[in-house]
Design a protein that fits this description.
single chain, 361 residues, alpha/beta, OB fold (Dihydrolipoamide Acetyltransferase, E2P), Rossmann fold, 5-stranded mixed beta barrel, 34% helix, 21% strand
Length: 361
């Protein structure tokens, strides 16, 4: 006999219930966004799954992409019929994973209300510690615990694996690392033990690292389509084209994501500082409060670097991430000011048209 589904099995808790009551929405049903398509969503609650759309008012009032529902969000809905629903409101997010769009100063929400972000790296061409730190920075900034899955370990010897694990532990000392292979099924039991009922786990990484294959193993069946590495380019191919949530038999909740080659920084200053805590601690001893740790005299970070007390590649990645985050913040401030000026212009124009007796006012 199947266990009766409870709303808590989908990740709902007191945080979201308090938000629903505060917003005076207790008379409406709640559901979780489990998939996102162009202009449409799939939501799930204890009654079932529904195709859903947002209201025209929400579209009109949205200031940025962050105002739209994302996979992982909890929303209040009204049912249109047995298969369709209307999303009336997105409940406040407990955690959020977001990145900067490539070439744009806009933010893309990867997923919301995540407990753990699994950063998947494969041991072959994809392996890159700097990229892991990028993912960790945006996870930390969003209040999400990051963890690493080092996949495809069947491709290297135990000696090579031990060397990679040591390198990762030295660079990311406090982070859980799970070594796996979907071919030999090594490490899958460790991964299953890590996933707790009612908690949400987001799988992140480049195309071809094995995110979908790992989730298929956790599900116990080939639900998600997968593709092999392209022989021509040596790069992963996008098997997953949209974000989607899956529910494991053991009670855990996992989100598969399209492969991401570029992880742009948003306003993640706090996340970067938390990740590079050793550098952040040293920075407190710098002569200048606004020290950039690049060229200033009496910079405690540079002193430690010259004394070989800091990893040079980690320092370089810290500086790059800081610069990206600061650039994003500067552009965001400029955009906000332009929006404010444009809003002021519209208000003045409407007032003048009304005073002039325009037919639409």
């Amino acid at each position: 006999m199947n266990k009766e589904l409870k709303i808590e099995d989908l990740g709902y808790d007191a945080f979201f219930e308090a938000s629903r009551i505060k917003l005076e929405l207790a008379d409406l049903s709640v559901a979780r966004v489990i998939a996102e398509y162009k202009g449409a969503y799939k939501v799930k609650n204890i009654e079932g799954e529904f195709s859903a759309r947002i209201t025209g008012k929400q579209i009109f009032e949205a200031v940025s992409r962050e105002d739209f529902p994302s996979v992982g969000d909890w929303v209040v809905i009204s049912k249109a019929d047995e298969d369709h629903a209307v999303i009336q409101k997105v409940l406040p997010r407990k955690t959020v994973m977001k990145r900067k769009y490539s070439g744009k100063n806009e933010t893309q929400i990867i997923a919301a209300n995540i407990d753990v972000a699994f950063v998947i790296e494969s041991v072959d061409r994809d392996y890159n510690l700097n990229r892991i730190e990028r993912y960790f920075a945006i996870a930390n900034d969003g209040g999400i615990q990051p963890a690493i899955i080092l996949n495809k370990i069947d491709l290297i010897s135990k000696l090579e694996l031990d060397a990679k694990l040591e390198e990762m532990q030295n660079r990311l000392s406090d982070s859980p690392i799970i070594a796996t292979s979907t071919l030999t099924e090594t490490g899958l039991d460790n991964l299953k033990k890590y996933i707790a009922p009612g908690k949400t786990y987001c799988f992140l990484g480049s195309s071809g690292v094995g995110k979908s294959s790992l989730i298929n193993k956790l599900l116990g069946e080939e639900i998600i389509k997968t593709k092999n590495i392209s022989e021509r380019s040596g790069r992963g191919q996008h098997a997953t084209t949209s974000r989607e949530m899956y529910f494991l038999a053991g009670g855990g909740i996992v989100i598969d994501n399209p492969g991401v080659r570029e992880v742009g920084m948003t306003d993640t200053g706090a996340g970067i500082d938390n990740l590079f805590d050793e550098i952040t601690a040293l920075a407190k001893n710098c002569k200048y409060v606004d020290c950039t740790h690049v060229h200033e005299p009496d910079c405690a970070v540079l002193v430690a670097l010259k004394a070989n007390q800091l990893d040079e590649s980690q320092y370089a990645n810290y500086i790059n991430l800081k610069k990206e985050a600061q650039h994003y913040e500067m552009n965001a401030v400029e955009k906000k000011e332009k929006d404010r000026q444009f809003g002021k212009f519209l208000k003045t124009a409407k007032k003048e048209l009304k005073e002039a007796g325009h037919k639409d006012y």
